[in-house]
Amino acid sequence: MFWRNIWVGSNVNGSKSDHSCRLKLERWKRFLIFVQSVAGQLWFLTKVAGSVLLAASVNAKDFFVYVFTGDGKGKTTAALGQALRARGRGWKVLIIQFIKKIPSGEVEPLKKLGIDIFPMGLGFVGVSKDKSSFKKHQKAAQQAFAFAKEKVGGGGYNLLILDEVVVAISLGLLKEGEVRQFLRKRPKGLNVILTGRNASESLIEGADLVTEMREIKHPHKAGYKARPGLEY
């Protein structure tokens, strides 16, 4: 009776009135179904639009700066693993090694995979067997950094690894401000990985990802020397 009263009032006598009421009631039901359908579609479109906007914001920046730091073993190792993964995806990879002089075990295999790697250091700074002056170490680090900027400046590289550059900065071989400026103005699409202990707060703050390697146990504490194949 409620629906009938809406459309025909209280006087609904007779078959014609009943038939008319049923028609109007059916039309009303169809209208409600239509409204519900439209509302549902609008809700769905709103959700889809929100998801698209969220995805766009997440992917707005698709090139990053990683920092691997800490006093534990594994910083260079992690960076090299990242280089292999990137190369497996067809990326062009450049690795510049600061401080390190003796080619490590990874150099030749990486070259065979098409990864550009250049050890450009003079060895550990200030150790007993160090025969190079601080100025020579400084010059070598600056040349390595200039070489890296020149290589990536032409474009084409997707990943640049500056191995032990954080150590070079902490020792005063490079100016942190120059490195940070390079990171800000680097070519679009270039991902950069910095490795080395003693990363400053400003380097950490400016990075997108920071991992700290923490030494819990190491054979060198028991007197074992670095072993080829494991440490280099």
Automatic annotation (TrEMBL):
Keywords: Transferase. GO terms for biological process: cobalamin biosynthetic process. InterPro entries: CblAdoTrfase_CobA, P-loop_NTPase. It comes from the Bacteria. GO terms for molecular function: ATP binding; corrinoid adenosyltransferase activity. This is Cob(I)yrinic acid a,c-diamide adenosyltransferase. It comes from candidate division WWE3 bacterium CG_4_9_14_0_2_um_filter_48_10. The lineage of its organism: Bacteria, Katanobacteria.
